[in-house]
Design goal:
Number of helices: 5
Distance between the termini: 53 Å
Structural class: alpha+beta
Number of strands: 23
Helix content: 10-25%
Length: about 475
């Protein structure tokens, strides 16, 4: 007898795992009693006759959900041992000596392969066979603790071994970029940490023709972030890849079960076309503890589940403190977005001015128009250079300007789970005020100088300059 498992749901029920391989009997032996041991029933249907058993456990959250470890791997039963299914996932073929359900994770003790942990048993606890007949199904995410995870700093090159520094530790990891634009990091000499964020599991009966979409909302139904299975059209195809912003993670849409991890962040700041010099400061803030919703949309149908984001029990900050932090980070994000939109608009006007000037420079009688255009270009350039540093190669030689400095404030405000400091508020007020002043100068230039230039161009029969903000995806 290798294992006795008293049921956590019924004092009269107990499960037993035994083996007899030392006498050349490799059959599985699993038994169940529901009458305090007066009678026992064998429950091995679905396990091969040559795969002997070592351990059986019942899920403490769902009665009749059983896990079994054998000489070659892992099995699961949804009907109290009436039938078993192989449950291997990426677990190597190896002997399973023990199993423990820790909250909502399954910890597996193997012989020769160390520990293996299946993160998040929530979908198994909610699974019913009838769900497989639905075109799609969304499982309710488990409560997620909102905590800061320090990943260290270092390289993150896909298809290569990368080295990262986390405090005094240095670790190597293989980084692979999946087809869904998600970078997966696999440490070479350490265990992989559990997913950092809300784990969402969804099921698709078959591959849909159209889009699969996950939308995260607050309890009032306001959209916070959305993700799609479809790769969006590239709004800036002329830019080289190294200048493009990070792609948003995409959803898988093949038939079967899929998992997606939301990092708790709302949409980030708008981007400056072709500029990635301070991209790491443009991510949106993490939501505060509370109740939220996730909606799965497939083929015109939708499924919605609520979930809870919990405060890290180790921190002293109140939910009010975290709300103040979130609100300040949102104000920073929005003001940086305004500055970036203005920079994109300025560059759009300057590009049109340059193209227009090249077309008419050789024409007679256009000197006054060209001079007016040059003056406008100088005025716009002066505003742009207050908002962003055009020479971003080395900030020690070419200091950051207003947009980058305000974006960098994000790293200080969210460096700890706490109420923003007075100094951080004052820095925001100072930088936001300076940005507003430049935005005011831009509005005045567009409303007066550009309007006058367009009037004169129209009188000369020349198409006017149309200021536009380039379409740039928001940061993660």
């Amino acid at each position: 007898v290798a294992m006795l498992e008293p049921s956590p749901h019924d004092p009269a029920t107990c499960y037993l795992a035994a083996h007899n391989y030392r006498l050349d009997d490799f059959r599985p032996y699993l038994f169940k009693t529901a009458d305090y041991g007066q009678s026992w029933t064998r429950i091995t249907d679905g396990i091969p006759e040559d795969d002997f058993t070592r351990v059986i456990r019942e899920d403490p959250a769902r009665r009749g959900l059983l896990y079994c470890g054998t000489e070659t791997g892992l099995y699961v039963s949804f009907d109290d041992g009436g039938s078993w299914q192989r449950f291997q996932s990426n677990l190597p073929v190896c002997p399973i000596y023990d199993l423990v359900v820790k909250e909502s994770d399954l910890v597996v003790a193997t012989h020769g392969r160390s520990f293996w942990i299946l993160d998040d048993l929530t979908p198994l606890r909610q699974f019913e066979p009838g769900q497989l007949d639905e075109p799609a199904y969304l499982y309710q995410p488990r409560p997620t603790v909102r905590m800061k995870v320090y990943h260290g700093f270092g390289s993150s090159v896909s298809g290569a071994v990368n080295y990262r520094w986390a405090g005094p530790l240095v670790y190597a990891a293989w980084v692979e970029e999946l087809p869904t634009a998600v970078k997966e990091e696999r440490p070479l000499d350490a265990g992989k940490n559990p997913p950092d964020g809300v784990i969402v599991t969804y099921y698709l009966r078959e591959r849909p023709q159209g889009e699969v979409k996950l939308t995260f909302l607050d309890l009032a139904g306001n959209e916070l972030r959305s993700f799609s299975s479809e790769k969006p059209a590239d709004p800036l195809p002329e830019l080289p890849k190294e200048k493009k912003p990070k792609e948003e993670p995409r959803l898988e849409k093949e038939a079967g079960f899929h998992r997606f991890v939301w990092d708790l962040r709302v949409a980030g700041a708008h981007r400056v076309v072709g500029d990635k010099s301070y991209e790491e400061y443009l991510a949106g803030p993490r939501v505060v503890p509370g109740t939220y919703q996730v909606r799965l949309t497939v083929g015109g149908q939708s499924w919605t589940q609520t979930f809870e984001v919990r405060r890290d029990p180790r921190i002293e900050a109140t939910e009010g403190d975290l709300r103040e932090q979130f609100d300040l980070l949102l104000r920073i994000r929005d003001k940086v977005s305004e500055a970036h939109d203005a920079i994109n608009q300025i560059r759009s006007v300057r590009r049109q001015l340059g193209e227009w000037r090249q077309r008419i420079e050789a024409q007679d009688g256009r000197a006054e128009l060209i001079e007016a255009a040059s003056e406008l270009e100088k005025r716009l350039t002066a505003i742009e250079e207050e908002l962003i540093q055009p020479k971003m190669d080395d900030p020690r030689q070419f200091p950051w300007k207003l947009a980058a400095r305000l974006a960098a404030l994000t790293s200080f405000v969210e460096s700890a789970d706490s109420r923003p400091t007075q100094g951080e508020r004052e820095v925001y007020a100072t930088l936001a005020g300076a940005i507003d002043a430049q935005l005011g100068r831009l509005r005045e230039a567009l409303a007066t100088d550009l309007a006058e230039l367009n009037r004169r161009l129209a009188a000369a029969g020349v198409p006017g300059i149309v200021p536009r903000t380039a379409l740039v995806p928001a940061g993660r």
